[in-house]
Amino acid sequence: MNSRWHGSILVLLSAVCYGFLPIFARLAYAGGAEVQELLFVRFVISFIIIGAFLIFVRRMHLPSRRQLVILIGLGAVGYFLQSSFYFLSLLYVPVAVTALVLYTYPAFVTTASFALGFERASLRVVASLALALIGLALVANPALDLDGRGVIFAFAAAITYTCFILISSRELKDVKGELSTFYIMGGSAVSFGIYGSATGGLGIGWGTDVWLWVVMISVVSTCLALTLFFRGLRIIGPSRTSILSTMELITSVVVAAIVFRELLTFMQLVGGGMILTAAILAALGEGRT
Question: Domain locations in the chain?
Fold first, then answer.
């Protein structure tokens, strides 16, 4: 197997692992888990596992003071908000809707890069944004009797993730992916711990079934997904990685249809196709900014 195939398979496996994240979350909710306590445990487990991995492979070290502050801030604020919005959205709308609305973020990243002067204006930028917005309108059509709170939360997750990507891509270029993840997970865990303690939202009296899904979120859809992603990224580069990562969206939509019988309407499928195309167009420009 040549290196390109090897890297591509790693990224595809990572995307599938990520794609199961909303499925596991909905199953945990069904068992009685609350959003904040679920996310607190997720990030604590992930922080411990990734830290142990870094120590084992002898890659654990402190970045510069400035980088450390940025990493912890991204976790404590950026990832805290993004994951909260995303998981809250899953309480109100189908998994497929949340996944599709979130996946408008590549178009927003591309457009913001142009607005901030990181990238030159092009037909691709305009087409990506237009397709994403039209697709978003079709997926979130109020005539479909969707709960508006879920759509708003998913859209907020897309916007906060856009900000997260823009900041991390410009400020943390020379920090290894796994190391960045370790400190970001730590910052997120601290924020969720503080918030949960202040609001009384950490009453973790779960049954075995809930613990199973939360561990699956932490191990499969966080640690394993991130490890595979960064390993594949190093082999095949950002553009091809971004395109193959759209398998995450496809996985979420298909598995949700099988497990939860959450079927999209024809117009939502059209909108989803537009969002997927917008994500691929955005990815085609990576590496040239």
Answer: 3-284
